[in-house]
């Protein structure tokens, strides 16, 4: 038996810490969605979950803790962030027993069937209901203690979404700081997040950043479009180049946190999006801009990198929002942030692929309906495929795995492909009066498998369900096994070499 002096352990402690950090950030970023319910034709909770599955959405944020939705989300693998409403904060922040009751009713009652991974305490409390500021952190503390009492604190994090309005001058990011009016509350909040290993929730909207900039920033900067050399956005203090306003907003938040001399707290963007329709004076709220922003946001988040100052911390993001909330007050744009209509169809095309890879079936191709096809021709093609064409259309019937999205485009695609896969070897085509087209990408999604699929496709920006919550980066792409394994082998080799050295002393 040998003894190792404490001073000899210091280098190894550093190496061990390095590996802990490596594995902490080994998981990639995810893209989730917010689900608002302020719409007149809200689908049932069961239908909402079917829509989520159809679009392979695996992370959602609820603006409350709706029992129907939480029940419907059970055993789906979808990770859920529930919310304490602003109206509930006052009571929770003044009473530990009320906080405990809230956790028991809205969280513990649904665990473990429903994968609840976070509690968002209020929404932009400091900038929308400043009178509640004194009880915000106490409310967070009481909820956390209730989770500890239920042995759920390791699985479920507590935080509170804040607006970018909390940072008066976000550019340049290197000099950004929180509004000093809230210094005491913010310091307590950051200490809480650090002590509980939680994360900062940020609502970041480049749409408002662009609209309110009065032309200072180009719209390409807000939409993640490439900037010409003369328009590049550079922080004069750090010389960091910012390709998007989104990155600059996240970096401004990191620098505002750093101003309190608190070590890095990961930032999760709980809301970001772009309205697709607005009034005449809301000229930037267009379907083209919304499509560009959303698809580019998805691609940006999926590259698993952070902003320039924290490049190794992926930016987990929730898109605002799933459905258009037509009952919301305010300008037209307020009611048109949804990426889907309530029947599950897309408001605009969304690229579900986070890479250029394609999934090839055994025949190499699939037959789907054209995006720009005439509805009457599509209906005729669908009727023919399911009738005279003898396609098996049972999967697109009500309650079946391919019924949602309940759109002519989706149903025709399934029927066209089933016919084509069966008949193309004996002369069947994918024409359908010009409404069909061939693709090498497997159109399968969730539990809906198109004929000819290898059944191994899990593509899509909304990643496959996680096996369990693992903190703010609980789902997404993994560090290559070979890379981590190689580092681990080197680490163990060095440990053994050092042990041998000590043994021989």
UniProtKB/TrEMBL annotation:
Transmembrane segments: 479-499
GO terms (BP aspect): defense response
One Gene Ontology CC term in the entry: side of membrane
Topology class, membrane: Lipid-anchor; GPI-anchor
Entry EC no(s): 3.2.1.39
Main location class: membrane
Reactions performed catalytically: Hydrolysis of (1->3)-beta-D-glucosidic linkages in (1->3)-beta-D-glucans
Protein's cellular compartments: Cell membrane
SUPFAM superfamilies associated with the record: (Trans)glycosidases
Gene3D superfamilies in UniProt: 1.20.58.1040, Glycosidases (3.20.20.80)
Record's keyword terms, sorted: Cell membrane, Disulfide bond, Glycoprotein, Glycosidase, GPI-anchor, Hydrolase, Lipoprotein, Membrane, Plant defense, Signal, Transmembrane, Transmembrane helix
Family matches, as Pfam families: Glyco_hydro_17, X8
Domain X8: 365-450
Molecular-function GO terms, alphabetical: glucan endo-1,3-beta-D-glucosidase activity
Domain of life: Eukaryota
InterPro entries: GH, Glyco_hydro_17, Glyco_hydro_17_plant, X8
Enzyme class: hydrolase
Family indicated by similarity: Belongs to the glycosyl hydrolase 17 family.
PANTHER family linked: GLUCAN ENDO-1,3-BETA-GLUCOSIDASE BG1-RELATED-RELATED (PTHR32227)
Protein name (database record): glucan endo-1,3-beta-D-glucosidase
Organism: Cinchona calisaya
């Amino acid at each position: 038996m040998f003894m190792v002096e404490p001073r000899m352990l210091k280098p190894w402690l550093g190496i061990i810490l390095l590996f802990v950090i490596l594995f902490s950030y080994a998981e990639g970023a995810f893209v989730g969605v917010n689900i608002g319910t302020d719409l007149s034709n809200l689908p049932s909770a069961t239908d909402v979950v079917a829509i989520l599955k159809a679009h392979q959405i695996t992370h959602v944020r609820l603006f409350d803790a709706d029992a129907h939705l939480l029940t419907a989300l059970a055993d789906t693998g979808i990770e859920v962030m529930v919310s304490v409403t602003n109206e509930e904060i006052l009571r929770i922040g003044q009473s530990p027993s009320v906080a405990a009751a809230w956790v028991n009713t809205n969280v513990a009652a649904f665990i473990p069937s429903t994968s609840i991974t976070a509690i968002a305490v209020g929404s932009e409390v400091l900038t929308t209901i400043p009178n509640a500021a004194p009880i915000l952190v106490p409310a967070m503390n009481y909820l956390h203690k209730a989770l500890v009492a239920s042995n759920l604190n390791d699985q479920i994090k507590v935080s509170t979404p804040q607006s970018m309005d909390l940072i008066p001058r976000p550019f340049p990011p290197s000099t950004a700081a929180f509004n000093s009016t809230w210094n005491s509350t913010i310091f307590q909040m950051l200490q809480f997040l650090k002590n509980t290993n939680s994360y900062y929730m940020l609502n970041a909207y480049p749409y408002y950043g662009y609209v309110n900039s009065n032309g200072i920033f180009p719209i390409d900067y807000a939409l993640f479009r490439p900037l010409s050399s003369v328009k590049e956005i550079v922080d004069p203090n750090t010389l960091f180049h910012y390709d998007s306003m989104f990155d600059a907003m996240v970096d401004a938040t990191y620098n505002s946190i750093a101003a309190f001399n608190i070590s890095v707290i990961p930032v999760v963007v709980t809301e970001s999006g772009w309205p697709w329709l607005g009034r005449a004076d809301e000229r930037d709220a267009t379907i083209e801009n919304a499509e560009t922003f959303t698809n580019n946001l998805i691609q940006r988040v999926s590259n698993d990198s952070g902003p320039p100052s924290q490049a190794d911390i992926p930016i987990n993001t929730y898109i605002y929002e799933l459905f258009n909330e037509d009952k919301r007050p305010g300008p037209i744009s307020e009611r048109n942030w949804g990426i889907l209509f309530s029947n599950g169809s897309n408001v605009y095309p969304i690229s579900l692929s986070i890479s250029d890879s394609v999934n090839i079936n055994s025949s190499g191709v699939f037959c789907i309906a054209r995006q720009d096809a005439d509805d009457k021709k599509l209906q005729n093609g669908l009727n023919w495929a399911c009738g005279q064409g003898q396609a098996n259309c049972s999967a697109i019937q009500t309650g079946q795995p391919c019924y949602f999205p309940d759109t002519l485009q989706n149903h025709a695609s399934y029927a066209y492909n089933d016919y084509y896969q069966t008949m193309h070897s004996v002369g069947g085509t994918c024409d359908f009066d010009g409404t069909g087209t061939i693709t090498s990408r497997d159109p399968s999604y969730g539990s809906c498998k198109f004929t000819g699929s290898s059944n191994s496709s899990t593509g899509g920006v909304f990643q496959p369900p996680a096996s369990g919550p693992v903190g703010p980066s609980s789902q997404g792409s993994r560090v290559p096994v070979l890379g981590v394994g190689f580092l681990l082998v080197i680490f163990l080799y060095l440990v053994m070499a050092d042990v041998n050295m000590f043994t021989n002393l």
